[in-house]
Amino acid sequence: MSTALLALEPEKVGAGPLGLLVVVLMGIATVLLIRSMNTRIKGLPKEFPPRDAPGADPPAEDEPDNKA
Q1: Residue ranges of the chain with pLDDT lower than 50?
Q2: Which DSSP category does 31 fall into?
Q3: Residue 40 to residue 28: CA distance in whole angstroms
Q4: 0.85 cut: is pTM over it?
């Protein structure tokens, strides 16, 4: 194989359609992730009960105890 076939002229090199496809797919993925995040955030309660409130769920076994 000749090295002359591998030489590219800088003026003729561009991003091409594959670069456009990657950017478009990343944009679509970003929009879908933002929509999913907004849906999950809207499902959260407006306020959370204080951790020390009576009737609050006890901490799970794997959560560290923050008492000093």
Answers
A1: 1
A2: H
A3: 19
A4: no
